[in-house]
Amino acid sequence: MNRRTVLGSALIGAAATAASAASAKQPAAGSAARASGRTGPLNLITDVEGIKIGQAHDADVRTGVTVILAEKPATAAVDVRGGGPAGRETDVLRPENLVQEVDAIILSGGSVYGLGSADSVAAWMGMRGRGYGMGGAPGVPPSPIIPTACLYDLANGGNKQWEMEPPYRRLSVQALEAAGDRFDLGTAGAGYGAEAGALKGGIGSASAVMDSGWTVGAVVAVNSVGSVVAPGGKTFWAAPYEIGDEFGGLGAAGLHASAEDWGLSKFRPRPRENTTIACIATDVALTRVECLRMAIMAQDGMARAIRPSHAPFDGDTLFCLSTGKKQIDNPALRQVAVAQLGNVAADVLARAVARGVYHATNYQGVTGKTWREL
Length: 374
Hints:
By secondary structure, the protein is of the alpha+beta class. 23% of the residues lie in helices and 21% in strands. The chain has helices at residues 3-24, 117-127, 168-177, 288-298, 300-305, 334-358, and strands at 51-58, 63-80, 87-88, 101-108, 148-150, 195-196, 199-200, 202-209, 215-223, 275-284, 317-326. A hairpin with a 4-residue loop joins strand 1 (51-58) and strand 2. Helix 2 crosses helix 3 (168-177) and helix 4 packs across helix 6 (334-358).
């Protein structure tokens, strides 16, 4: 039996098993259809073993930083779909390049100014011996690998008169020192100054525990040109993937789509002013190439949750991390496992997008911008 036959049989078997399980879980007639699935204990990306999150914001500036900290260097990849990205060290993550692991990922506000958030994280980690080193010669500091993506929040009414001292170096250190398992959603971290279409955006996160015991998580800063809700109501586009009542429990009954009806999107989008930036993670040991495939598949989560997505006005960027805590035991099913992980990651990311907007609150003295006020 050749490799194609093995993989084909595995896929057919997996599909049949999934179809049987789905049939067994069909809701009774007249009941509301709900997504099946199980979240991690916190329903956050930190349910993935080996991942911590730290956040900080500046209410006066209306911006913030989210640091995804790998407790040990993690295999990573990146997929960029938006037409106006702002990133740092994303080329390091190309599969053919030397360094295969990263020490942290940063999501930040501030557009090009926010890229400076990685400077202080690098210094903080270098002081502690974290980073890539060629032999560890005395007196030669290591080089922490910290890919970064930023969103545009410069025109949200905050005080941006920082001259030579943008706040991002300071905020990223505060975020690092606050890193842990729990963190705020909504108007926090990199999502503090974000806007999701015509609504207040924010930081969202979600997780899923697969039947295999593998965990997938996502964190996202939602600052999209597109709308996260269907026209004429407040039903999230991500409603079919909701587990429990994690973003309101309205169900999918209100969903309807027209290709030219953007609903509560930004009315006059301008280039480089919109970006949804995210990181997904799994505890499964993957190669750099497998992480890239998972990231490519997971980008569909943005399309499931935001209309339109990946537009010329957006800088949509998605990182993927593998902490390597669990192994894929059957080599013949390895690519099937990657496909399963990628599909779960897309759903988890869609849920995280909705949760970021669901939990978002107005700035002090501002009303009428949040999902809860629709």
